[in-house]
Design goal:
The chain is an alpha+beta fold and 201 residues long. The chain is built from seven helices and seven strands; from the N terminus they run ααααββααβββββα. The protein has a seven-stranded antiparallel β-sheet with strand order 1-2-7-6-5-4-3. Strand 6 and strand 7 form a beta hairpin. This is SRPBCC domain-containing protein. InterPro entries: START-like_dom_sf (IPR023393).
Amino acid sequence: MTPPKMSADAVQKATGHSWDHWFSLLDDLGAKQMSHKAIADHLHTQQGVSGWWAQSITVAYERARGMREVGETTRGFQASRQKTFLPNPAAAWELLISTEGLGAWLGSGAPDALHEGQTFDLPDSVHVEVRTIRAGEQLRLGWTPTNADRTQVVIVWVTASASGKGTIGFTHENLPDADARESARTRWSEALNSLQALTRR
């Protein structure tokens, strides 16, 4: 059984009941044969649980009962990697969007700069669309491999660590399966290593 990510105290305080209560209730309901939406709707409309907690309890239940794999969301699988190796977020952003930085994390075929609405193709058969740029904070990319049946999303973000250092992270959403998730984790780990290598020159 995979333990819920939220603490027992948190769910008790927010919903008035423990994880054991909710899991037992859902077992009695036959939730293992129900869809994610049906479980969450029942918790919200019949049990009076807020929308956010209804979703959280549903996901925790699905993981605990083996209905959802690690990294699986309601929109497919998700992979995330991050690394803290720069003196501050401003330096992290500057590296990320520099010509050298783009080459490091996008690989060969990367453009010299990014702008919203831009599209380009990478040599490994990925079509990229730059959807959103929030300067100093985040890039949001449409990411469509040639053989994919839907567009994936890559979010590249910069934040400050607890000590104020610059952290760069990649979140890859809408992946089709666990194998694709592992491939994405490997890809973005290598991208972070390549970015860090630029700072050691």
